[in-house]
Each structure stands twice: as structure tokens, then as C-alpha cells.
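=== RUN LOG ===
request id: a7f3
mode: sequence -> structure
chains: 1
length: 188
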Amino acid sequence: MKLLIVEDDDESRDVLKALLELDGHDVTAAWNGIKGWQAFQSGEFSVVLSDWLMPEMDGLELCRRIRASDRPSYSYIILVTALHGKSSYLQGMDAGADDFVSKPLDPDELKARLIVAERIIGVQNRVKHLEGILPTCMYCKQIRDEQNQWIGIESYISKRSRASFSHGVCPSCYDKFVQPELDRIRPT
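=== RESULT ===
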């Protein structure tokens, strides 16, 4: 995953960056909220891991700006904090955080939380894919899938959702197709 770390403590930032890169993540690091916001605006990040308490712009303000930004993809935000208690938790959630990690960081706990983040980002991407524009044949109404194959709309939707189909005939099609056929086969 592509991660943005925003941490004002040099040693913590460097250790965290190295740890995450060893796990195979593509990591960008910023040393305060303003630099983190600038980095966020210039890239696409699946996860933002931000310290809460920082000079110039804290993690809460960074969360608010990220949530207010109009981005096509969702960024999962984890706040790193030494603050504890229900009020801190609620304040962070209200600002737009998805999760919290306590200081000092436990590498195993962080890995577990990143697994959850990856799952949620995957679901978000799948939903976005389903919400997107579907290339549809204007004649037969088949849809072109990710492998550039043309398949029926029912097949396409069934493979990507839990939707099921029932069939009927709308009044317009009944008048146009069914009634003429009935008139043709009925004895007069």
C-alpha cells in the first residue's frame, strides 16, 4: 500500500518509515501537518498515519482537511497518539480518523491495523468500481468487463454483487412485442 506518515519526531518517523518499508509498503514521510497536507495533495495515499500532537498543524486538522478534500479514492486515517480516554477518541473520530494507535507504537498492533485498513480500502475500491461508468453496447446492452470481454448485464452484476434478478415485461415492451405476438397467434 501507499502510505503517508506525518510525524514531527525525527527518530520515530525514521523508525516507522523503515519498519513499514520492510513490510513492503511505499512510504512517504512528512515532519509536520503542513508538510503532510502538501504531500497528501500531491499524491494518492491508501493510508495516512499521523501523529496527533504536532506543531503548526496537528493531526486533527490534517484529518479534517483530508476528509474535506474532494478525492476520488478513500484514504484510511490512523491517528498516533499518547492521548487516552473516550473524549480524545470521540474528538479524533469527529475529525475524520478511522483508527487510533497508542504511543509507544507496537509494531504487531500496527501491522494488524494496516491489514484492516487494506481490507477497507479494498472494499471501497470495489464499491467505486461498481459505481463507475459501465461501457455498454447501445444495441444488445452487453457490458465490457475488465478483461475487455462483452458479457450480459445480469452476468456482470451477479459476479460483482449479491443482486439477483427476476424478469417481467414493462408496459411499453408488452405493447410493442408481446401484444402483437398474441394478436398474431390468436384465432380471429
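=== NOTES ===
The chain has seven helices and seven strands.
The radius of gyration is 25 Å.
=== END ===
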